Amino acid sequence: MKNYTVDHQNYYIFKAGSATDSCFVHFQWGKFDFRITFSTFKKNESQIKENNIYSSQEGSKYASIKFEVLYHNQWYEYIETTAHGMQFEETLWRRDGKDYYTEFPRDLFNVAKGICEQELQLTRV
Prior knowledge:
Elements: E1 3-6, E2 9-18, E3 22-29, E4 32-40, E5 53-55, E6 61-71, E7 74-84, E8 88-95, E9 98-105, H1 108-119, E10 123-124
Antiparallel strand pairs: 1-2, 2-3, 3-4, 4-6, 5-6, 5-10, 6-7, 7-8, 8-9
């Protein structure tokens, strides 16, 4: 299993893959599973922030659209960081109106995007 160490935290790649219009990375930190999904970027998608656009080696453009954690066998989507600490942050995750608050390593979303850039060989546009 491939691993990355960022700020003394170890992340293990479980699976990475791509399809015609999307790609994803499923990774683990501690006992938690995460996945981040990218979809083909379409210029008319107003919900995607400009700084989340990536280019593949083949020239396709992707946007990070979903960051999730597996909790009680269900995927919860990342909403926001709610509190900051020296090493950990409290984060809010949501699924079907249910909120899940938990502490994860500081700046986890950016760390996840960095891992995905390397695993999927993407470059930020």
